[in-house]
Amino acid sequence: MKKKNFFAQYKQFTFFLILAVVIVLIAVFAPVVSGGVDPLKGSLDEALLAPSKAHIFGTDKMGRDIFARVIYGARASLTATFGVVALIFFIGTTLGVIAGYFGGIVDSVIMRIADMMLSFPGLVLALAVAGIMGASMKNAIVAVVVVNWTKYARLGRSLVLKIRHCDYVEAAIVTGSKTPYMILRYMLPNALPTLIITAATDIGGMMLELAAMSFLGFGAKPPAPEWGYMLNEGRACIQSAPWMMIFPGLAIFIVVVVFNMLGDSLRDILDPKDE
C-alpha cells in the first residue's frame, strides 16, 4: 500500500501552515503588498476618510492609510511575538532542564523564583515591569518574557524528572558521561517535542499580550504601525470612524486564530499519545 504524503495525511496542519506562511510573507513584503504607500505619512486633508478605492481600509485621524499601517503592523507584531516566544522558550527550557537534572538547591532556587512569579496575575505583573522600565516595544517584550518563562521551566523540569533516574541514564553517568553530554543526549531530546508544541500554541497568546500592552500605552509608541497601538488610536473615534478599530482588530483576530490552529495541528502530529 502506497504511503500517504505527509502534507496530504495532515490536511489541517497543511492548511494552517500555508496561511501562516502567507501571513509571514505579507509582513516580509509589506512595501510591495501596500503598493509603496508610506504608513507613517499622511495628510490632514484626508483625515478620517471612510474606506474607498483610494484607501480601501480608510484613513486615520492623521490622514494615514490604514491598509498600509495594518500591513506594516504585521512586521512589528510578528517580529515581537516570535521574539517573545523564542526568548521564553530558550530561558524557560534551559532553567527547567537544569533544575530537573541537578535537583537539590539549584532546583529549589529556580522553582521558588518561578512560584513567586506565578503568584501574580500575568498581565498585571507585565504592566508593572513595563511601567518601571518605561513604555517601549523593547521593554514590553522584556516584561512579557519575565512573566511567561515560568511555564516552560516547570514543564521542562517535569519532563526531565521523568527520565532522570531511569536505568539507562544512571548507567551513562556511571560510565563517565559528562553533564553537557547527558543534557544534550538524554534530557533535551525527551523534553523538546512537548516544549515545541507548547511554544507553537503560545504564539497567539503572546501576540494578544503584546497587543494589550501597546493598547494600554506600555508597548509601541507613535507613530509606529503596530496593531495594539492602532486599536488605542481608534478608540477615541470608534463612533465616527469605526474602521480605525475594525481592521487592526480583524488582523489580530485572523493571525491569532491561524497560529492557534497551527499549534493545535502540530500538537496532534507530535503528541506521543496519538495513535
TrEMBL record:
Annotated coiled-coil segments of the chain: none
Its chief place of residence is membrane
Q: Where in the cell is it found?
A: Cell membrane
- One GO process term, biological-process aspect: transmembrane transport
Establish whether keyword Cell membrane is in the entry.
yes
Give the ABC transmembrane type-1 domain ranges. 74-263
UniProt KW Membrane keyword: yes
Question: Which keywords are on file for this protein?
Answer: Cell membrane, Membrane, Transmembrane, Transmembrane helix, Transport
| Membrane-crossing segments per the record | 12-33, 80-102, 123-149, 195-220, 241-262
Q: Which domain of life is it from?
A: Bacteria
InterPro entries named among the record's database cross-references: ABC_transport_permease (IPR053385), BP-dependent_transpt_permease (IPR050366), MetI-like (IPR000515), MetI-like_sf (IPR035906)
Against Pfam families, the record matches this protein to: BPD_transp_1
Q: Which GO terms describe its cellular component?
A: plasma membrane
Membrane topology (UniProt): Multi-pass membrane protein
Give the similarity note: Belongs to the binding-protein-dependent transport system permease family.
Protein name as annotated: ABC transporter permease
Q: Which organism is it from?
A: Oliverpabstia intestinalis
The top of its lineage is:
Bacteria, Bacillati, Bacillota, Clostridia, Lachnospirales
